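Exercise 7.
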Amino acid sequence: MSAPDHPPGTPSSAAIDSRAAALLEPLTALVIEAGAAILAIRCGALAVETKTDGSPVTQADLAADRIISDGLARLAPDIPSLSEERAGDAKPPFADLFFVVDPLDGTKEFIAGRDEFTVNVALVANGTPILGLVGAPALGLVWRGHVGHGAARVVCTASGVTAIEPVRTRPLPSPGAPWIAAVSRSHGDARTDAFIAARPGAVRKTLGSAVKFGRVADGSVDIYPRLSPTSEWDVAAGHAVVVAAGGKVTDGQGQPLRYSTGRPGFILPDFIARGDPTAES
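Solution. The predicted structure, written as tokens, is:
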């Protein structure tokens, strides 16, 4: 008799996959609910505070975090979660299965009145994101993906979901043809600029928040490099969506990107999200 592919007492890969599939629709509804709360606050007076790390936080961040925290407690009380707004309370490393949440990614974009801010929720299994949702409430979109089962773009309005469109990444254009690299509006860095400049034919597309992952997943963008430190909650959901859509997400050296490894502050040193998994490192 062959040995099981998991230690005794831990869920099997099939059980984890089944759990992720069952959570997809409830998590989509939760991301849409959190996005609606953000939009409601956007229409009123906005109070901006500064966190200890110097980054801004608003009542919209906190309202979305409460909705998601309460929702995850109802949907999966046995699965721990890591949220940007409660990272100080987290007890890493997490084992087996955990959620990673950024209740409002792109707070600077939100404060500036732009539409490129997102609600990010991921389910991570054994250090790898397997389910991801990136909601862009001001755009009326949710990109979602279950690794091994495909990805979709959910179109929603105030009255509810109006369409669910399968999405897939696209092959990198042939040599000499232009290809699109997503770059951050708020977080540029010299290494990323040099990486893009070294690849002839690149056209930079400036975008905010995890919308960049969504655009890689739906084939609007070819590559999204970020060769400077960022946080796990900024990346995990988009990572799952891109991989589910047929792409690849690695660290800056082309190696697998792992989560909850004990890095201080839940920092990821760098990453590259590629629509074409066969593209060069």
